[in-house]
């Protein structure tokens, strides 16, 4: 897609979609994340060719099933960890996140034997359960992994509540993004990836256009792989898109879906149908697209089945209030 095509698409969307309020963007961000997770969960680890064979025209509706035997509209660890982080940010007083509380919530969830938990997250939380402090747990997973193998997408999948809480405080957003990420994912590509995604979400929450989101996302980001992945996402051919669990690939794929597709439904569907780590790619693309287009643009047929819909709406409102309102 060249620059002229992007401008024409942006102008078309301005005409066809009403401007969402900040309340609608907050709700859209978290609900878009959860919808991407729920749509992608049943096809997680399937290739895009397998998905195309099973769902001619693409997977567009909640179907359930998959290796986790999900119900239609059921969420996975992506949304579960997002909600735990959101609850901590709204329930614990103070201007800084209470990282001991965040870690304790993650640990309680880990001990509940969830259906799905990422490899790096599992190693980190096992270290936490063994008494490792939160600020060393992610480092323990990093040390225990082969070089480069602990740079998974388990932090970016859940980081959106930090953007909603610290929308008006860029310095705290950077610190909170990195600190909440490194509880489980200490690789710099993961911590800076969380910063970049949250800065992109903040740009969209403020009404910024998608064609400027990549530049906004990487402001001050010191990790070159993260910068390159996001800045090059819009020009990436579909055949070159990788959608596995590597954080840099997830960011690239999700930003590409936002930039190439019109509205949250199209962006989430495109992300999920890339296959492989479909739920996380869908969740990250959904957070971005929901922040841009708002909750009214998310299909009601999805929202009607989404299991934690009411909880998410309440958390979005509370996060907006904690951020200082409109």
From TrEMBL:
Keywords tagged on the record: Hydrolase, Magnesium, Metal-binding
Positions annotated to bind Mg(2+): 76-78, 277, 279-280
Cofactor(s) listed: Mg(2+)
GO molecular function list: hydrolase activity; metal ion binding
Keyword field contains rRNA-binding: no
Classification via InterPro entries: ADP-ribosylglycohydrolase (IPR050792), Ribosyl_crysJ1 (IPR005502), Ribosyl_crysJ1_sf (IPR036705)
Cofactor comment: Binds 2 magnesium ions per subunit.
Family under the similarity heading: Belongs to the ADP-ribosylglycohydrolase family.
Protein name, as recorded: ADP-ribosylglycohydrolase
Species: uncultured Thermomicrobiales bacterium
């Amino acid at each position: 897609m060249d620059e002229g095509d992007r401008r024409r698409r942006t102008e078309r969307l301005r005409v066809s979609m009403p401007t969402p309020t900040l309340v609608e963007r907050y709700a859209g961000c978290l609900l878009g994340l959860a919808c991407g997770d729920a749509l992608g969960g049943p096809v997680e680890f399937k290739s895009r060719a397998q998905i195309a064979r099973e769902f001619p025209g693409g997977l567009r509706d909640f179907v359930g099933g998959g290796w986790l035997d999900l119900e239609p509209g059921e969420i996975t660890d992506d949304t579960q960890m997002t909600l735990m982080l959101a609850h901590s940010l709204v329930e614990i007083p103070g201007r800084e996140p209470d990282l001991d509380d965040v870690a304790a919530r993650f640990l309680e969830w880990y001990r509940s034997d969830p259906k799905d938990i990422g490899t790096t997250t599992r190693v980190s939380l096992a270290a936490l359960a063994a008494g490792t402090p939160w600020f060393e747990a992610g480092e323990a997973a990093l040390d225990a992994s082969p070089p480069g193998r602990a740079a998974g997408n388990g932090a970016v999948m859940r980081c959106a509540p930090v953007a909603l809480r610290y929308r008006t405080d860029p310095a705290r957003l950077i610190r909170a993004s990195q600190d909440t990420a490194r509880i489980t994912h200490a690789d710099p590509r993961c911590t800076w990836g969380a910063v970049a995604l949250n800065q992109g979400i903040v740009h969209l929450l403020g009404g910024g256009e998608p064609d400027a989101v990549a530049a906004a996302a990487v402001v001050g980001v010191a990790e070159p792989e993260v910068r390159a992945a996001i800045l090059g996402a819009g020009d990436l051919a579909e055949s070159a898109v990788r959608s596995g669990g590597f954080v840099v690939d997830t960011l690239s794929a999700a930003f590409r879906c936002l930039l190439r597709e019109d509205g949250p439904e199209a962006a989430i569907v495109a992300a999920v149908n890339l296959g492989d780590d479909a739920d996380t790619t869908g969740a990250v693309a959904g957070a971005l697209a929901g922040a841009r287009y708002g909750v009214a643009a998310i299909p009601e047929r999805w929202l009607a089945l989404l299991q934690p819909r009411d909880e998410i709406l309440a958390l979005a409102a509370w996060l907006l209030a904690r951020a200082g309102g409109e």
